[in-house]
Design goal:
The chain is of the alpha+beta class. It has 2 domains: about 120 residues, no CATH class; about 120 residues, no CATH class. Helices cover about 45% and strands about 10% of the residues. The chain contains 12 helices and 6 strands. The chain has a 4-stranded antiparallel sheet with strand order 2-1-4-3. Strands 5-6 form a two-stranded parallel ribbon. A hairpin with a 4-residue loop joins strand 1 and strand 2. The longest helix is centred in the middle third of the chain and has 36 residues.
Length: about 350
């Protein structure tokens, strides 16, 4: 058994599983076990004998039932160990000193099939071995004291604690924690939507009398845009426009910026601009309206950066020629030319 690659082990809770030799300590009493892996990933980890990590859990082993150099043969022996007391053959080693007891495996492909498997009953007259008591017998060896009742109860309690911390239970707890986190996020989103709705309903009215702007949305011409740019030099009007734009709404910063630009600029005017004035177009970032959109975006999405806002504005203005039937019109013109 000393040179075999895979060991067939029995856990304290009666589970039987194939584990790589690297996962078991030198005394063959403890095994390291990875956290939060599916059955498929767990079997792959065992087959490849991956190196244990520091965050793996440690469980106690009752005994080593056998060993094999082949994962397939070891897995077959582990399945056999659920029903029979002998799993050794000419190729694999095993102690063969187990009472007949059905055990569940940690890794199962179909739990329903295991429940339907019949129990193996051995007639008393065919067994020449004495009945095995429920509690393990106390072996008195030379130089070692007899185990007292208190120590035995302490070991049983330790086995129960380790059984409750097996990988299947950890996965269930992780799923429950994820569900609770999702519920919390949904609650926060509902509060944000409610806040946006309240700001949207109040943004239609100006905060202070006497600062109402002359320009209305959408801005259709360059002269109108220049006039609006002059109006935005007034801090009160700028603050009013920023508040109005921040309440337009959008699932993310890019959607919000697109909705704000649709509200502020007519498509015919948007086609004449790019964010930084490239490809012979006019520079939109030089207008104060761009600064208003930048501030409004950071109010609604505090983690948005200047570069992200600039990229979203560039993308919207670049696609202006395809809106309002522009793309279809270009396709038709190409067909006519052909």
């Amino acid at each position: 058994m000393a040179d075999k690659r895979f060991l067939i082990t029995e856990f304290h809770n009666g589970s039987v599983e194939v584990v790589p030799r690297e996962w078991v300590n030198k005394k063959m009493k403890k095994v390291q076990w990875p956290r939060d892996l599916t059955n498929t990933k767990m079997e792959k980890a065992i087959r490849n004998s991956i190196i244990p990590n520091e965050d793996w859990e440690t469980f106690s082993l009752t005994r080593i039932l056998g060993a094999s150099d082949s994962f397939g043969r070891a897995k077959k022996k582990a399945d056999m160990a659920i029903y029979t007391s002998s799993i050794s053959d000419s190729d694999d080693d095993g102690d063969g000193k187990r009472k007949r007891k059905i055990r569940r495996r940690l890794l199962t492909e179909d739990s329903s099939s295991e429940e339907e498997r019949p129990s193996i009953v051995v007639p008393e007259e065919q067994s020449s071995r004495p009945c095995v008591p429920e509690f393990p017998s106390v072996e008195c060896q030379a130089g070692k004291p007899v185990e007292v009742q208190g120590e035995r109860e302490q070991q049983d309690d330790t086995a129960k604690v380790e059984s409750s911390r097996l990988p299947g239970r950890d996965i269930s707890l992780q799923i429950l924690k994820s569900i609770e986190a999702l519920k919390h996020e949904i609650l926060l989103l509902r509060k944000q939507v409610s806040s946006l709705e309240q700001r949207s309903s109040s943004s239609s009215q100006s905060d202070e009398p006497g600062v109402a702007r002359k320009t209305s949305f959408p801005v259709c011409g360059e002269e109108e845009l220049a006039s609006f740019n002059e109006e935005l030099t007034n801090p009160a009007i700028m603050a009013s426009v920023v508040k109005e734009l921040s309440s337009v709404g959008g699932m993310n910063a890019q959607k919000l910026i697109a909705n704000m630009l649709k509200k502020c600029l007519a498509n015919s005017l948007a086609q004449k601009y790019s964010c930084c004035g490239r490809k012979g177009k006019k520079n939109f970032s030089s207008h104060l309206l761009f600064q208003a959109i930048l501030r409004a975006t950071k109010i609604a999405f505090t983690q948005a950066t200047d570069l992200e806002v600039q990229a979203a504005v560039s993308k919207f203005l670049a696609g202006a020629k395809d809106r309002e039937g522009g793309r279809q019109e270009r396709r038709l013109s190409k067909i006519v030319q052909i």
